[in-house]
Design goal:
Blueprint lengths: L4 E12 L2 E12 L3 E5 L6 H8 L5 E8 L2 E2 L5 H7 L2 E4 L11 H8 L5 H12 L3 H4 L11 H13 L5 E5 L7 H18 L2 E5 L3 H7 L2 E6 L2 E7 H5 L4 H6 L12
Parallel strand pairs: 3-8, 3-9, 6-7, 7-8
Antiparallel strand pairs: 1-2, 1-4, 4-5, 9-10
Helix pairs in contact: 3-4, 3-6
The protein binds adenosine-5'-triphosphate.
């Protein structure tokens, strides 16, 4: 597939201790688009994000960002020098601290002055969170907390946003808010988004591209609308199992 790649994995093998999860994985995610990672439980979707963000060491292979080799780069370096932000699964705020303090911590590598100057720009995206600026983060709704986490990541004005299952614990309407926000970041700011999401159907409606993994290898890479229109989608993602030949990457 020819495209302007933001993220490239070339033969990446990585895992936990002796356990290798990614198996010579090749994948590409296009610049300024939203790419959804799908596949059965344990296929290695979250591991792709963690490996890209430097949380796991590669055994083999290379990772490139906008063509530049970033293999082995540490999370801090990725964040501050390469413009990669990671919003992990679950709740990652300091619940006792206020919304504002959580944002300040997100800008810790920028310095206080720069962070404070940027906070209004992030809050402009989240009117509801802005109204709760001095409340404890734990008092926000689940959706507002996820928005705040994304906002905190945006303080560094990332070029690439990695986001792992943002919809967990959120109601369908709130999930739509989070998805709309990601869409805006891609469309208005050219942010490249790589996302893992169990809520496959609604995520496909919002995403540009879909990559399916199985046992640490890529089994499909297609435009999201094309996949959404495929009658085999239920079997493929709700029932697990193998990718039908009709869906495989040409
Ligand atoms: N910290 C860890 N230590 C050891 N094994 C791990 C660790 N994290 C994940 N694994 C294992 O790695 C495999 C892949 O996990 P990963 O989280 O990447 O899968 P996934 O495709 O995101 O699946 P899910 O949809 O279930 O989250 C799983 O078998 C998991 O048990």
């Amino acid at each position: 597939m020819s495209m302007d790649a933001a993220i490239t994995f070339e033969g990446v093998t990585a895992g936990y201790g002796e356990l290798m999860i990614l198996d010579r994985l090749d994948l590409r995610a296009a610049r300024g688009r939203i790419t959804l990672l799908i596949g059965p439980n344990g296929a290695g979707k979250s591991t792709v994000l963690k490996t890209l963000f430097g949380l796991l060491k590669l055994r083999q292979g290379r990772i490139r960002l906008f063509g530049e080799d970033i293999t082995g780069a540490k999370p801090r370096e990725l964040l501050t020098q390469h413009g990669v932000a990671f919003v992990p699964q679950g709740r990652n705020l300091f619940g006792q601290l206020s919304v504002y303090e959580n944002l300040e911590l997100g800008g810790i590598t920028l310095g206080t002055q720069e962070t404070r100057a940027r906070i209004p720009e992030v809050l402009a995206l989240f009117p509801r969170v802005r109204e709760r600026l001095h409340s404890a983060a734990s008092s926000l709704s689940g959706g507002e907390q996820k928005q705040l986490e994304v906002g905190r990541a945006l303080l560094l004005r990332p070029k690439v946003l990695l986001i792992d299952e943002p919809s967990i614990g959120l109601s369908p309407l709130v999930v739509q808010d989070v998805f709309r926000l990601l869409r805006r970041l891609a469309d208005e700011q050219g942010v490249t988004v790589l996302m893992v999401e169990q809520n496959v159907k609604s995520a496909l409606k919002m995403a540009d591209d879909a990559i399916a993994l199985e046992a640490g290898r890529l089994v499909l890479h297609k435009p999201a609308p094309q996949l959404l229109a495929d009658p085999d989608i239920e079997r493929l993602f709700l029932g697990g199992g193998h990718v039908p030949a009709s869906l495989a990457t040409p």
